[in-house]
Design a protein that fits this description.
Helix content is 18%, strand content 30%. With 785 residues, it is an alpha+beta fold. The longest helix is centred in the middle third of the chain and has 16 residues. The N terminus is likely disordered.
């Protein structure tokens, strides 16, 4: 009877927002409750920068969040209950609830951000409408190709693969229910159900979120800078753990290696051509000889891989990790089908029988990751191979690729679970690794995820992009957007995936872009080789140069990974990080920042002789490949292109750390070059992070070293301070300070008062000076002129 009454009440919640009447306000230990005629609002602040609003319609109940991990309630909120309104202020954010006509308005430092225009929940739909200002640019909504400013688009929220996409893709593998504004605030709709996010397609200055079910709950968060904004969002939803360091190296990968012999031959070719490689990825042929009818075997196909364990061991001795693909589908034709049915691990149909349906790979069932016994069963598959030496996992088709609405999961229907399936899959792996292998950082490559998936160490990629210039053109936008939404390791199949397009110029340009992209992983359908060792001699030569550049930048890149882990800042950053009020920078992704100090401009057109570059006005910029070329900020300049690199520039005053280690996983970085882009009038602030590359939470455990490099504007003193964690074994490093654009008179420096003469050099080289630094020491360098 109680259930019937609840359903009746829920069906009856049809009162229009304009008719909603205020009834009362109360503050229960930081939870601000507004009672209205058709339900209750719960408003809670997480911090100065973030607030959550939930509307619980009469007859409905609140539901737990799968996105938000910050459970704190910020108590320092000034609450005023006035005659006509409730005024709540945290400092940066202010919420004003007006009684009549009822409304909720959100402000940042006195500026109106948004007003809730409607919020409702019925048995058919959850809906929220928020106002936006007329001139705001809107970003977010997950992984798509629409242009950086996504305002005017109605975005479907249903994770779905788009095979062979190029310069426009309205729906892809990661649909994140959030938007970010050029006014430096964001709104996250905390609901997993399939739905839509309408970013003012009707040109009424209204954003509408709707879903087939779930709570009416959203978080509004704001920042004074974009860096602050992403930090606040990742405080709410969790931060990316430091990945195992080897994942910043080069991968050998294709669709796919058919045999042990083929894989070993490929790695031998890398060694022969002196191209470093840190990992090899095995696609679906490791468990079968054909694409169809073998998925779900989840065991080694011994005819093709007769000495699988020996192969893994052999690769490991060469410093190469082995990674396997897995999918959540168990085909009826697979060796595991009967076991999966008997164990009851599959999603069900309406008759509580295993849900069976057809898709490209065969007739299948889907593992139900809501079931504890299904998770245990799936983990046991992984654990068996971890014990054999497999170092990482590729989770493919996790949208799930085919997921009929009639399929039932333990927690509800398919459309409730669909968008969080990959999220739960990554959570399973991360949780079990933490339980069974607490000192091991897992590598989890996934094609689909949800808000907060980064906290499970998920490494996302941009799906089956076409192997064309249009496919390459789409990649910076996808990566930049996803970085803003917490998933800082979004990357692409370098060289492109779909189609048999043999274009060495495209291939090389894609790999050159990959040097300054989170993960360096060429991967493609096998008709045209993805590995550089099988390309033309010229393409191989240029690819090798790019890969060696990638390896040299390991200290810089690993420090970016550490920053992302600590405060959420993405590795790739839009130019509006530098100029947040420059509206033109919200339009496209022609250039971006790699960390704080690189300006990168990919070449995305064939046979391009010149490229127009915008140089942010916050700095002077030095050509990374020709330091004689300096560009003033705040200008568009046409620069000539070169075959062996894309346009890349360094912030004047920056320090770029590099090394000469050719295996990322085992790199000692005991010989470190600090490239200082000399500018007497610019300050220098740089941090270089070291740990063993494998230990989980190494920083928190004190197993780390930090070099902090500073120089004040106008000063001639560079300070290098080594901070050593309590568990870190001291290392003596040979430091070469390479001063780019040093004054001609700079022939010696003083290191802690001791004279160090310039290394021998040709007239065209930068001035360089060598000295030693032991962990825990501080060195003051006087640039004598």
């Amino acid at each position: 009877m109680r259930f019937t009454i609840r359903i009746f009440l829920l069906l009856a919640v049809t009162v229009g927002y304009a008719q909603r009447e205020y009834q009362s306000y109360s503050n229960d230990n930081g939870i601000h409750t507004i009672r209205v005629s058709d339900g209750v609002y719960k408003i809670r602040f997480f911090s100065n920068e973030a607030v959550e609003t939930e509307f619980i319609a009469t007859g409905s109940v609140s539901e737990n969040s799968l996105a938000v991990v910050d459970k704190s309630v910020f108590q320092s909120v000034k609450a005023q209950e006035l005659r006509d309104k409730v005024d709540l202020s945290s400092g940066l954010i202010r919420v004003v609830v007006t009684y009549k006509p009822f409304s909720i308005a959100y402000y940042k430092s006195g500026q109106l951000l948004a007003t809730e225009l409607a919020a409702s929940r019925t048995n058919k739909e959850t809906s929220v409408k928020l106002s936006v200002n007329a001139d705001e640019s809107l970003l977010g909504g997950g992984s798509r190709v629409l242009g950086m400013n996504r305002r005017g688009n109605k975005l479907r929220l249903y994770n779905k693969a788009h095979y062979g996409y190029e310069t426009r893709s309205e729906l892809m593998n990661y649909c994140i229910p959030m938007y970010l504004s050029s006014e430096v605030y964001g709104v996250h709709f905390d609901n997993t159900w399939v739905g839509d996010l309408d970013l003012d397609s009707g040109k009424q200055n209204v954003v509408t979120y709707s879903a087939e079910g779930g709570p009416v709950r959203y978080q509004i968060f704001a920042g004074r800078t974009w860096k602050d904004l992403v930090k606040t969002y990742t405080t709410l939803t969790g931060r990316q753990p430091l990945p195992p360091r080897y994942v910043l190296g080069n991968f050998s990968s294709r669709f796919g290696y058919h045999s042990q012999k083929e894989a070993e031959k490929t790695i031998a070719a890398f060694k022969k051509d002196r191209i470093p490689v840190d990992a090899i990825i095995f696609d679906l042929y490791w468990f079968g000889t054909t694409i169809k009818e073998t998925m779900g075997n989840l065991d080694v196909w011994r005819d093709s891989f007769p000495k699988f364990e020996k192969m893994i061991s052999k690769f490991s001795k060469q410093g190469i990790k082995t990674i396997l693909i897995t999918e959540p589908f168990i085909l009826k034709s697979s060796s595991k089908w009967n076991e999966a049915v008997a164990q009851g691990i599959l999603a069900k149909d309406s008759l509580s029988q295993p849900a069976v349906y057809d898709f490209y790979f065969g007739t299948t069932g889907l593992i139900d990751l809501d079931k504890p016994k299904a998770k245990e069963w799936f983990w046991n598959v992984y654990d068996k191979f971890i014990k054999k030496g497999v170092a990482g996992w590729w989770g493919d088709l996790g949208e799930p690729e085919v997921h009929p609405k009639w399929v039932r999961h333990e927690s509800g229907p398919a459309n409730k679970v669909h968008n969080i399936y990959g999220h739960k899959w990554a959570e399973l792996l991360a949780t079990k690794y933490a339980e069974k292998y607490p000192n091991t950082r897992p590598f989890i490559l996934m094609r689909s995820g949800y808000s907060g998936s980064q906290r499970f160490g998920m490494i996302p990629w941009s799906g089956d992009v076409n192997r064309t210039w249009g496919g390459l053109k789409a990649q910076p936008e996808i990566a930049l957007q996803m970085g803003l939404q917490g998933l800082g390791y979004m990357h692409s199949d370098l060289g492109g995936f779909a189609g048999a397009n043999l274009d060495d110029e495209l291939y090389v340009r894609w790999l050159q872009y990959g040097v300054f992209q989170p993960i360096f992983r060429p991967h493609a359908q096998e008709e045209v080789a993805s590995e550089p060792v099988f390309r033309s001699e010229n393409a191989k030569k240029l690819a090798r140069k790019a890969i060696l550049e990638r390896y040299a930048l390991l200290p810089y890149n690993y420090s970016l990974a550490f920053e992302n882990n600590q405060i959420g800042t993405p590795l790739m950053r839009p130019l509006f990080f530098e100029e947040p009020t420059n509206k033109s920078l919200f339009v496209n992704a022609d250039g971006y920042l790699w960390g704080n100090d690189f300006l990168v401009v990919p070449i995305t057109d064939a046979k391009l002789a010149e490229k127009t570059v915008y140089f942010p006005k916050t700095a002077r910029w030095v050509d990374y490949y020709d330091a004689t070329k300096i560009y003033e900020g705040g200008k568009y300049v046409s620069v000539k292109t070169a075959e062996d690199h894309i346009p890349v520039f360094v912030r004047s005053g920056a320090v770029i750390p590099t090394c000469n280690d050719l295996n990322v996983g085992s790199a000692s970085m005991k010989e470190l070059t600090l490239g200082y882009y000399y500018n007497e009038n610019y300050p220098t602030v740089a941090t270089v992070y070291f740990d063993d590359g494998t230990t989980t939470n190494a920083f928190e455990k004190g197993n780390y070293e930090l070099l902090r490099i500073t120089k004040e504007a106008g000063s001639d003193t560079v300070d290098i301070k080594s901070e050593k964690g309590t568990a870190f074994k001291a290392v003596k490093r040979k430091i070469t300070l390479k001063i780019i654009q040093a004054p001609q008179t700079l022939t010696a420096i003083e290191v802690n008062g001791k004279l160090v003469k310039r290394n021998s050099q040709s007239a065209n080289e930068a001035s360089s000076f060598s000295f030693e630094l032991t962990s825990g020491q501080e060195i003051k360098i006087n640039l004598k002129k």
